[in-house]
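=== RUN LOG ===
request id: a7f3
mode: sequence -> structure
chains: 1
length: 223
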Amino acid sequence: MSTQIKQILSRAYPEHASLFAQLRTIPTLKPQTTPLPEAVVRVVTGQLLSGKAAETIYQRITQTAQGKGLVGSWQLDYDSFRACGLSGSKARALCRFGEIIGNNPAALEHWRALETETLTREITSHKGMGAWTAAILQLFYLGWEDVFPRGDRGLQRALVALTQAGASQHPHYTFDPDRARPYRSYLALYLWQAGEQGLFASYSLSLPAPTARIATPESETQG
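=== RESULT ===
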């Protein structure tokens, strides 16, 4: 199915098929067994950080929690979070979150059965957790296939690059992630992969010359 999804995305964006052809096929998404309170700690840790920096801090957090004999790292106190490298705002947010969760790793299992909008509202009701946090949890830990974290800076850069590349061939072109429904999560994963490989800087040079007007949401409504 993962190969079929990649083909579906290539057909949804024929103007960028050459980009998808260069990317490793993303495996089918599946729900993770990580306790959701622990997933929250990891995602909040990664807010506005590079992947490497976030992973280093998170490893310190889990090691500290294990050393204290805690059920999960969400039970750490403020000073422990700060000592691991978290900012004050993130440490305060996770301490408030930990007070709500207590020592029950299954406290958030009901999240798995919620609708997208309901779950997003519930996650963002916690201070320090916004739409990006909700989307990352839905995509990576719940395994939902139709999530696109529009607030992610890497994806925003990708959208700009793809729009500019498409506009070089079709002046009114705009890259629209909604054309990837119901597989927007895979689109996000492919765009992250392309960004990590530095493909946006060079692939547009090999775009084919325009042979037909590409249908975009704007052109479809204007006829």
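=== NOTES ===
The longest helix spans residues 51-67.
The chain has two domains: 2-28+150-218, 36-141.
=== END ===
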